[in-house]
Design a protein that fits this description.
Length: about 240
């Protein structure tokens, strides 16, 4: 899917997710900076990274110099090997998981074998096969820079580990000067192959994102597989409304 970057607010631009759920392509944020832009997530494949890179050039934004992973799931990190000269930043627990992922013998044959051995992996592994036309030069890239709780990047970008049930390394990225909080998949239910009947959005995590004392106040809350949401949109997701 070739899409264009759209300016969300301030210096935050958004390359949208793919509406086709079978493709499992989340959105990617670009935080523009003359000294080098910051990406939030890498795209689900080198091919996706190249499409996003073309969109960044078409929008006239400075080339990315940093890439923050919201978490270690493949659809957020498999494009990383196609971004040249970026410092990859990720939570320490995700770094260990990605080091293990990097050692797996990824190929279409391996995907077929793994899916046959565990049918619950089929949606994810079929989407990986679709995303990857070929494997030349492909590598899973563990973070170059790890953090434990929080990290403040140049330009006042704040990186906070939040964890949760979707992924233990889930991380949110705040851009206070633009009123944007990038939330990855952090409040989603566990991934498909681990999901139990009745699993739904993580109300407790959503409440913490909306807590102004914890993260501040934002105009936009941007999760990876949806249109950007206002605080009201995010509040509407709560299954038990707060009093
Ligand atoms: Zn995820």
């Amino acid at each position: 899917m070739q899409a264009t970057l759209r300016k969300l607010a301030g210096r935050v631009w958004w390359y949208p997710h793919d509406d086709d759920h079978d493709n499992i392509q989340g959105g990617v944020a670009v935080i523009a900076d003359e000294s080098g832009s910051t990406l939030v997530d890498a795209g689900n494949s080198p091919a996706a990274a190249l499409r996003i890179s073309a969109a960044i050039q078409a929008a006239g934004l400075p080339a990315p110099r940093r890439l923050v992973y919201t978490h270690h799931h493949w659809d957020h990190v498999w494009g990383a090997c196609a971004w040249p000269d970026v410092e990859v930043i990720g939570h320490q627990s995700g770094a260990r998981l990605l080091e293990a992922e990097a050692r797996r013998p990824w190929s279409h044959r391996y995907l077929r074998e793994q899916a046959a051995a565990n049918p619950r992996l089929v949606p994810s592994f079929r989407a990986r096969a679709w995303a990857m036309a070929d494997w030349d030069g492909f590598a899973v890239v563990p973070p170059h820079t790890e953090f434990a709780d929080t990290l403040t990047l140049r330009g006042g970008i704040e990186v906070h580990h939040v964890g949760g049930r979707h992924a233990e390394d889930s991380t949110v990225v705040a851009v206070p000067d633009s009123g944007v909080l990038l939330t990855g998949d952090c409040f989603y239910p566990p991934p498909h192959h681990l999901r139990q009947p009745g699993d739904t959005h993580d109300d407790q995590l959503i409440r913490s994102l909306l807590d102004e004392d914890t993260f501040g106040r934002f105009d936009w809350y941007v999760d990876s597989h949806h249109q950007p949401r206002t605080d009201r949109d995010l509040r509407d997701l709560l299954t038990t409304p707060s009093g």
